[in-house]
Amino acid sequence: MKARNVLDLEIPVNKTSLMQMLQQLVARGNRFWVGGISDNKHKLEALVFKLSERYPGILRTGKQREYDSKRGLARMHLVVFPGDSGRFYWWLLGSEGKGGLADPSSEDAKAVRDAKGRDSHIEFEDYVLHYATKQTSFQVPDVGTGKVKSLKRNTSTWTWKMLPEVYKEELETLLMAAQSHNWELIVRTLAALRNRPQFAGVRNQVLSLHHAAQRDWRMVERAWRATHRHEIEKDAKAGTLLTKDEANAQTAKMRRQPFFTSPSRPTPFTIRDLVIY
User: Fold this and answer.
1) Could you read off the pLDDT of 142-178 as tens digits, one per residue?
2) Judging by beta carbons within 10 Å of its beta carbon (0-12, 13-18, 19+), is residue 171 exposed, middle or buried?
3) What is the pTM of this model?
4) Is 222 helix (H, G, I), strand (E, B) or coil?
5) Which residues constitute the domain of residue 72?
6) Is residue 223 one of the residues assigned to a domain?
């Protein structure tokens, strides 16, 4: 859809779609950004009009942005998402090029951040967008034997992770639960972790937390079982945690989903819907 004005820009359908959209935009070279939180719809409306006047590329179509890029102009994108308590998140992202955020003559040049920078990552709620290196497997024919063999290589990609302080808090919760012999709290905490948006970085952290929980629980499991025989008689799984393979199977990998629509919202919402109603 081509936006006639900035209020016609579509907004992501949910938090996971928002995170996927930001991930994709940054991965495609739009890593220079400014952003913030607007605390009411009137301020948001004034802000988006100011940004569209300052950066007309916000309203360009995909083909028009490709044309601009070939001419050395920056590609620009504005992302808005409703938060809690009448607040609105917003990000303005752009690529290198004239007229963009990375242009030294830009009015926002002093405030712009590079998503690759150590202290300039994009954050959203419990998560931070990282440029990470991971190992991937691939198969090639063995020249000597003719058989297929598996190899690994390092690849770099953008992915979301839990913020360090969030990960630390989850780890401390699991350790405290083990030390207090609170098996139910461990199970609830791990289930909640598996319900987080399972981007590759988040998923690796969740599985790491599962491993830590299993390690800590093994140290107190025998003592717990000695005092909870009745629960074990009623439920053979009482006092047990998911194995490594079970945790891996139940921690679903992220799937790509539409940014602006869903079965429950087939018609996209726009910024206009946020500021008028």
Assistant:
1) 777 777 877 777 778 999 999 999 999 999 999 999 9
2) middle
3) 0.89
4) helix
5) 6-123+257-276
6) yes
